[in-house]
Amino acid sequence: MKLLVVGSGAAGLLFLWHIQQSKKILPQDIIIVDPHHDGGDLQRKWGSVQSNTTWSQTLAVFGLSQWKDLDPTKPAPLHHSITLLRHMLRDFLSHCEVVHGLVDHIEKQDSMWSVLLQDKSNYSVKVVILAHGAEPKQLSLPIPSIPLECALTKSRLETYVGTSSRVLVFGTSHSGTLVMKHLHELGIQTVAFYNTTKPFYFARDGEYDGIKQESAEIADAILSKKYSKLQLSHLTDTAQVIKASRKADWVIYAMGFQGRSISNINTSYDGKTGELIESPGIWGFGIAFPNKADNGVNWDVSIPSFSTHIEKQMPSILKYLSDC
Questions:
Q1: What are the backbone angles phi and psi of residue 193, rounded to the nearest 5°?
Q2: Under DSSP, is residue 230 helix (H, G, I), strand (E, B) or coil?
Q3: pLDDT digits (tens, 9 = 90+) for 213-254
Q4: Residue 7, domain member (yes or no)
Q5: What is the band of 299 on the pLDDT scale with cuts at 50, 70, 90?
Q6: Domain identity same for 31 and 130
Q7: Domain residues for 185?
Q8: What would the pLDDT profile of 95-129 be if each residue is shown by its tens digit?
Q9: Residues 83 and 194 occupy one common structural domain
Q10: Fewer beta carbons within 10 angstroms: which end of the chain, N or C?
Q11: What is the CATH number of the domain that holds 228?
């Protein structure tokens, strides 16, 4: 086998779509390792969440102008992106080796990478693509926490909180605004903490990766004092953090994501090329390995930006495979 892909969520499927388009690697030379092969976290955890990019931006990745009955000018729930990806890859995936499992560790053996799964099965390949996703960042506060995936679905959030509940939210970017909207609609007393100069940065103001679409509308409503039970506070306001923490029943962390780890591999990577710095022949894509912005600080996280990043690296990956 030439190529092993860890993860068949959005990034893994996008990578396979670009491989399919290149026509340089047969699907029979590809192994895909994932515990479920159901579309990953974007399907399982975040499927009902509304995207912050329009549907036309996702369709443009595949050269399409329409998909089913979705309005191209509006965002769509994230699970539609996975449905589209799986449709575009249906025949190709049927010829790949699909393995249900979790990677335990990866190590170099001569000119090949040895990938050992938790069930002790082992695969030797030339190139490894890591697209195994990330988990929400958290703090170690002594307060019960509501998982972000539950807080982003109003019906699930409602099973945790009651009208007398007090909730802390850490993070005021895209997912944070969606959580605040649900809490507002449920009438929950909320304190939201931010760690930037101001609570909201808008794409319309030219801010790189600023909030837009529904998130921007929510932020506008908050700034207009329409969320009567919500208080915004800077994280450096120690007195407020302590005061709010003492009264809080629940905390929700919406502070971004950190990549999952794999034993024996240093997952430090070059944000311009996607290649792991200490591991030639291994590339990382997706939310755990997003492309780095020109300013060296911010990162793109979306289906279109994942695709653009992967497309830029395809010549290097294909060359590496042909040279090995």
A1: -105, 140
A2: strand
A3: 999 999 999 999 999 999 999 999 999 999 999 999 999 999
A4: yes
A5: confident
A6: yes
A7: 148-253
A8: 999 999 999 999 998 889 999 999 999 999 999 99
A9: no
A10: C
A11: 3.40.50.720
- Rg (the chain; Cα; Å): 21
d(CA 79, CA 210): 22
Q: What is the spatial distance between Cα 223 and Cα 216, in angstroms, rounded to a whole number? A: 10
**Which single residue is written with the structure tokens 């931010």?**
194
160 and 117, same structural domain?
A: no
* Same-domain check for residues 185 and 235: yes
What does each C-alpha distance from 41 to 61, 197, 307 come to in angstroms?
20, 31, 17
Report the C-alpha gap between 133 and 285 in whole angstroms. Answer: 9
Give the pair of three-digit tokens for residue 79.
Answer: 């699970």
Residue 143 lies in a domain: no
Sole residue written with tokens 């995207």: 51
Residues 156 and 74 in one domain: no
Amino acid at 30: I
Residue 142 lies in a domain: no
Boundary residue ending a domain (207, 230, 253) = 253
pLDDT tens track for 181-207: 999 999 999 999 999 999 999 999 988
> At 9, phi and psi to the nearest 5?
-90, -155
Which helix (H) or strand (E) segment is 153 a member of? none
**In this structure, how many other beta carbons lie within 10 angstroms of the beta carbon of residue 135?**
15
DSSP 8-state symbol, 122: E
Picking from 230, 253, 276, the residue at the C-terminal end of a domain is 253
* Band of residue 297 on the pLDDT scale cut at 50, 70, 90: low
| Mean pLDDT in residue range 293-298 | 65
Contacts of 191 (CB under 8 A, 6+ apart): 166, 167, 168, 169, 230, 231, 232, 233, 240, 244, 248
CATH number at residue 57: 3.50.50.60
Count of domains for the chain: 2
- The backbone torsions φ and ψ at residue 174, rounded to the nearest 5 degrees and listed phi first, read -55, -55
Cα–Cα distance, 286 to 133 (Å, whole number): 7
Residue 78 lies in a domain: yes
